[in-house]
Design a protein that fits this description.
Belongs to the purine nucleoside phosphorylase YfiH/LACC1 family. This is Purine nucleoside phosphorylase. One of its GO terms (molecular function) is copper ion binding. Pfam families: Cu-oxidase_4. It comes from Nocardia donostiensis. The protein is an alpha/beta fold. The chain has a single domain, classed as CNF1/YfiH-like putative cysteine hydrolases. 22% of the residues lie in helices and 25% in strands. The protein has 5 helices and 12 strands. The strands form 3 sheets. The chain has a 6-stranded mixed beta sheet with strand order 3-4-7-6-8-11. Strands 1-12-5-2 form a 4-stranded mixed beta sheet, with no helix packed on it. Strand 6 and strand 7 form a beta hairpin. The longest helix has 15 residues. The radius of gyration is 17 Å and the shape is globular.
Length: 240
């Protein structure tokens, strides 16, 4: 009999790590100028906390693109030049790093397919989400069974952009145009992605309402750079 698998999802905050300011303290990004030893300790703590071996955390070299990689085992280095990971392998934890962009965690529990996605303005605009859904379906997932969790990100209340940029993103990602609390043009990428997922037939969509720009418990590149990176993690855990 196949083991019963439970899909687990986690979003980290700034608290509980080893990094010094301005990366204080639970920075998981190794590309932002932080002490590599502190980042390594933070990553080991993440693995310990979620009950996964450190070598079974799979990281990405995120580039704001629409490349998707299907992985079937541990990777000694971050998967190069990709913004989404998909797997059917139990106990393999997929990690997405963000500090204002939208982290998306997807799963078809029945098919045993999960994904972690980095969807910033550029990636969302050029179609990273449809690419991920295609990859999941190639492994047996069905849109109506997929559940999506959109994590903490820059909110439409705070994400200010030029009017031309707002109009351009809206053309490619309808539903994302908004107005900020200051009355200026803005983007709500989570709203646009939610609409995109709904139109693709995704069965359940949840959104963590926290705004990275407003919430000082979270890292935000817009609020203050340099800064650290939050982790969004998804994995399938066997019953214990």
């Amino acid at each position: 009999m196949a083991p019963v698998l439970t899909v687990r999802r986690v979003f980290t905050t700034r608290a509980g790590g080893f990094s010094a300011p301005p990366y204080d303290s639970f920075n998981l990004g190794d590309h932002v100028g932080d002490d590599p030893a502190a980042v390594q300790r933070n990553r080991e703590r993440l693995a310990e906390t979620i009950g996964v071996a450190p070598q079974r955390l799979v990281w990405m070299e995120q580039i704001h693109g629409r490349t998707v990689h299907i992985v079937d085992g541990p990777r000694p280095e971050p998967v190069p030049a990709t913004d989404a990971l998909v797997t059917t392998t139990p106990e393999l934890a997929l990690v997405v790093l963000t500090a204002d962009c939208v982290p998306i965690l997807l799963s078809d529990d029945a098919a045993g397919v999960i994904a972690a996605v980095h969807a910033g303005r550029v990636g969302a605009r050029i179609g990273i989400v449809p690419r991920v859904l295609e990859a999941m379906m190639s492994l047996g997932a069905r849109p109506e069974r997929i559940g999506a969790l959109l994590g903490p990100a820059a909110s439409g209340r705070q994400y200010e952009v030029p009017a031309e940029m707002r109009a351009d993103v809206e053309r490619h990602l309808p539903g994302s145009a908004t107005t900020t609390v200051r009355g200026t043009p803005g983007l709500d990428l989570r709203a646009g992605i939610r609409r995109q997922l709904t139109e693709a037939g995704v069965g359940a969509i949840a959104i963590d309402p926290r705004c990275t720009i407003e919430d000082t418990a979270l890292f935000s590149h817009r609020r203050g750079a340099p800064t650290g990176r939050l982790g969004g993690v998804i994995w399938m855990q066997a019953a214990r």
